Amino acid sequence: MHEAPSVVDRSFRGEQERLLGHDIEFQDMTERTLNSKDPAYMDNEPRDGTEGAYVSGVDGALDDGEDGHAPPVYRVYKRRWFGLMQLVLMNIIVSWDWLSFSPVANTAAEYFSTTSSIINWLSTAFLFAFVVAAPFTIYALHKGGPRLALITSSLLILFGNWIRYAGTRASPPNFPVTMFGQILIGLAQPFVLSAPTHYSSLWFSPRGRVSATAIASLANPFGGALGQLINPFLATSPKDIPYMTLYVAVISSVATIPSLFIPAAPPTPSSASSDVAPIPLRQTLRLLSKNANFILLLLPFAIYVGLFNALSSLLTQILTPYNFTEESSGIAGALLILIGLVCAAITSPIVDKYKNYLLFIRTLVPITALSYLAFIWAPGTRSVALPYLVCSILGASSFSLVPVALEWAVEITYPAGPEAGSTICWSGGQLLGGIFIVVADALKEDEGQGNPKGNMGKALVFMAIVAVGAVPCVWFLGRGSMRTGEGRLEVDKGVGRRRTEESGEERVVAG
Q: With the CA atoms of 162, 163, 169 and 172 taken in that order, what torsion angle do they form, in degrees rounded to the nearest 10?
């Protein structure tokens, strides 16, 4: 992280004053949305690789400061997109690796001469591995930032994939070796899944953080969608399992290479809050443990992430007893994720602009719970219409909720580092996801029992009860004594708030 503005060296101060001396003013061009670029702004891009500079203040306020000096100028750099895209790529790959075998559970079980319940442990162990790696993830992000986390994850993914392939190629197929490779990949996941909030806080201005976090975080389930959709076509019979594993290993290996070239941090701060030295890790954890809003947010976040992980892992086994094919189950899983990505792409810029975190959370949580309730009856229709519809609604609400909840967690826990809260939230979801898979598998009807045989109707009822039970938590967020001033936003408003209130204008200075 960077030193506070009060200790900026003289040369940088001189550069700030030079920048502020320009008479170039633009209106509302810092980051209207993450994907928009104004031609006027592009024409004045400085040659040092920045997209522009803006004066401290989330609304672009101007103030000469109490000491008569020019206010600090914060920049966002073009190179931030390279790091964000690599973070997206790594999240896609690690999730595809996670769900390599789940969409073809029955085929994989036949190949390894075991049962689908044993194949489920490839997903379950992956989720539990996340929890084991969580403390190391927090430390890596706190000390080395996203670059160290990405490199660590890349190495684990690289070794894990090829060990897993060796297990499938052995004669006879070696399930323990395959499991070991899967666990290594599971250890890699928290390093990339917990990094988006830290990366967006470090590289993006306040107007682009939610969208940046959404893009990187939601790339993870997009990888799961690719696995759900593609893998059933790569492994149409048991003998195809090694080839499927090989294809995924090659793609994963290539995807890890750019991690070596990610910059550690921007040359200058992107916002006032990113210009503050991080507090010690022990103090960060202490602040989180005493924050009632964070704990109330952690509970539903972990529950819904856990339910989503369980549903994604078991979707094929939920639908196939009702005469759905593995391909149609894969399409349902892809809809669950792809529709969610589209909706998140729409809602995230809105939240970026208006910062109405709580309204979104309180709206989306009940919709998510009702979707799990409706899914109880979806497989029994024996038609793809209702499962596809419910999966689409569930994906839309779940995916829109994730980045908003993560960014609000950062706001209400500031000055605690974003890496700790994010990792704890994701770890809770992965832990509960593993537990939910074990419970759901135990509630599954035996192969020769039930109507239809081997159905998971009781597991769906269990998921619905848990989902509905989590709803009351969000009713108490930010109420009464737990109201929050959303500290990070207050810091980013910084100097010049009085003039902002008067003029409502923003000055963006191009170098």
A: -170
Is the Cα torsion angle 228, 229, 230, 231 positive or negative in sign? positive
Closest CA to 128 of 96, 159, 108, 98: 98
Q: How far is C-alpha 382 from the geometric centre of its chain's CA atoms? A: 33
DSSP structure string for 86-151: HHHHHHHHHHHHHTSSGGGHHHHHHHTTS-HHHHHHHHHHHHHHHHHHHHHHHHHHHHHHHHHHHH
Q: At what angle do helices 385-413 and 209-234 cross, to 10 degrees?
A: 140
Tell me the CA distances in angstroms from 260 to 51, 97, 149, 152, 161, one per residue in order.
24, 21, 11, 10, 19
pLDDT, one tens digit per residue, over 303-336 is: 999 999 999 889 988 999 999 988 898 889 888 8
Q: Which residue has the tokens 């969580």?
A: 134
Whether residue 95 contacts residue 152, with contact meaning beta carbons closer than 8 Å, is answered with: no
Whether the pLDDT of residue 350 is over 80: the answer is yes
- Least confident stretch, 26-35, 90-99, 205-214: 26-35
DSSP string, 159-183: HHHHHHHHHHHSSS--HHHHHHHHH
3-state helix, strand, coil in the chain (%, to 5): 70, 5, 25
Query: In the chain, what's the furthest Cα-to-Cα distance?
Result: 81
Residue 464: alpha-carbon gap to chain centroid: 23
Please say if the pLDDT value at position 248 is more than 70: yes
What whole-number distance in Å separates Cα of residue 291 and Cα of residue 295?
6
Please give the backbone phi and psi of residue 75, each rounded to the nearest 5 degrees, phi first. Answer: -120, 150
- How far apart (Å, rounded) are the C-alpha atoms in residues 269 and 468? 42
435-455 average pLDDT score: 87
Q: How many CA atoms lie within 13 A of 388 on its CB side?
A: 9
Contact status, residue 300 vs residue 471, Cβ threshold 8 Å: yes
Q: Which residue, chain included where needed, has tokens 């980013």?
A: 492
Segment (H or E) for 77:
strand 73-77
C-alpha atoms less than 13 angstroms from C-alpha of 297 in its C-beta half-sphere:
33
